[in-house]
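Protein modeling request. Please complete all fields; requests missing the sequence field cannot be processed.
Requester role: graduate student
Desired output: 3D structure, token encoding
Chains: 1
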Amino acid sequence: MPGVYAFLVLTLQLAHLSVAFEMTRKNVLKIREHCVDNDKKQNLLRLKLSTVLSSSMDVCVRMHLRMEPLSDNKTLQIEFTELGTNNSRNIFIEKRHNGNGTIWWEQLFKDHRKVDVRCPVVSHCSPEAGYTPVWTLKFECFNAQAGYMVYVSVRELSNTLITASHIVNHLTEVASPCNHLHFSPCLPVYPKSRSPEDGDTVPVYNVTVDILAKRFLVTMEAGQQVKARLCFKNLQWECTGGQPLQMNTDLVRAVSLNFSHLVPCMCVQLYYAALDAKRDTACPLKDKILPGGGDVLSSSSVTLFGSSVLKWKPLCPSAQYKPTVTLCWQQQENQSLCVPAQNSTLGETDLKYNVSQVDKHAHMCVKFSLNGSRRVFCPFSSGFVSKWEVTVVPRLRRLHVQLSSSVPAIFAAQLCVKEGEVCMANGNVHPVLMEEDSRQGELSIRLPLLSSGLCVQVWQAAPALLGRRTICPDYTHRRLGLILAISLAFLVAITTLAILTYSLIKRKTSVWRCAERKPVLLVCSSDDVAHVAAVCALASGLQEELCVDVRLAQWAHSSTQASLAHLGPAPWLYGQCQVVQQAGGMVLVAWSADAQRAFVQWREGQVDEREHRCSGNLGREKMSKKEEWKEKPREGWVERVRGASSVMAPVFNAALSSLWAGLHSERRGKGFGLVDFQGLGASCYVPKDLRGIRRYCLPRDLCSLIHELDLKECGPGGVKGTIGGWCCWPRLFSKALSSWLSQRLAQRLEECLSQADVRARLTSKRMLNLSLRADSENNVKLKQKKTLLPDS
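Delivered output (792 residues):
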């Protein structure tokens, strides 16, 4: 017994393996990738179906699909459906991003069975310019029955890429064991045909409806020669329709009949191909509630009888379809838009509507509404001439309505606001009377301040006519002109504001720069070229950039009686010091190494003079040395630069006297300052006695110096000599301008110092060469003297 059980288990496993092998071999999806020319890419998507036999003599439908390669992590769905049966199958293809070119696909059967398969992509494409990769998918076998139709759809997500249908052919001859085993020829086996014995016999068939796809699926028994057609059955004994389709049910067991309108009288009629055969009609939509009423309206028509009756003719007259009929005004600029008219519903009697009291204009239309669907007919578009016309002209905050009528009547106009397809009434009704002797009329409607999408509804009030004309003026040109005017005004305003701002800033800046400032007296302390050039650069920068009144001995000409040439160095310096200090200005002494040595000698002379006053003639010798230094400056000043100024020493001595007196006065040196230049003795030693004087190292301390030279202090009555009360301006703006001007002045000083440094180096080199040449000449002369002297 155990052996028998083991044999049975092994047999069952082998059977399962064979079935699984057969299913796997039959349900094979092959994917190949190749390249096509870019010019052929437009006709890339193709789907082809064919009937084949499997090795088990089953009829199969083979699929060939050509498409673009599937993107990563995208899913492609291929759905097979055999119409008339429950046979269906879904194939889901997914390309996972794993880098090895493997496609995962899954089969889902009608009985919810699943088969997961991993399929490698066979690529025959090398990436080249001008070529596009293409996939060719081949599915071997979808089991179907001969004579039935197979429908295949290919979708990516909710987007349908391509669909195709195929009627499965009869392959009985090929599948016959006679031919398969190469026996003697035998006849193909067909089911026995059914021939009508009398005229009352009808074909055997079954009809199913696909409402969404708008099609009838007709399945028939084999052995019949039948005809099938679609028809409309409005009468009990008659069904009118199109041309019939003749079929042999041995070859075609199912057929799909598509129709355009989903209406209840749509039927299918089948009968034998014999002469005067009885026809059988099936109307599966007759008693069903169909979705919407769009097909009913789209298949209907209207006919105008005379000028008073409008007849509606639906394709399938039925009591359940009673549309609502209203009037609407078709817009001239957009004919697809028809604005409904208020209180314009038409009465109905046996699908006939009274239009005798309707305003018959070419743009006055009739709207049929049924179950949320609408259709518009314009029956007055031809053959009718309107008895009155209206024109609306937009004006400034008004709409001017001009009327002309061939008959006396009372007309009315009212504003309305467009909200989608509806124009809602807004404001009062404005009437106008057109008498017999006056066939022209006009009125003006005032627009609200804030308005958008405004139109005018005009209608004939007496004698009353149904329908309102909705006139929406063209605001395009008006709005364009308004936009241009606003843009121009805005541009002019911006330009004017910019000019005024620029003028104000320029005026205030010029006021700040050119207002009365503290005067400055600059004194050189050395005849060195670089030193004098730096002092002159500082003086010119203060005068040009800040409009400061600068007094400098080198600039004192002899054109006036108060010049240095008329007064002399010392009196001129004392007078300038007095004027500058009375004006609240500053006396700036440009300090240098020569000034250090001169100050030491000057202090020694001051001490000797004090001792002379105390001891009589004891200090006379020292005083004579002092006077000698005053009249004949130290040789180091003059010998370094030819053409040294003869007034430099007296002016500097007088400046030292004034500086010393101011330092020991009540003001403690206020109004004096020492200036040195970086690179020209900036690190020189300032005597201890002058430590109370404020020192400025330029150009580093230029901002502080400019701030010190700012406008005079404001008094109770404002600033004397200032313009526009500049001292009341914000200090932040003043500091910003001071910083900007100090940077400009510092740049000028740096350029001057660099040039002066170069000139000083050249001068020192030239003086050194002259000194060496003089020493060589002296040596030569000494040698000549020695040769001329007699030997002792």
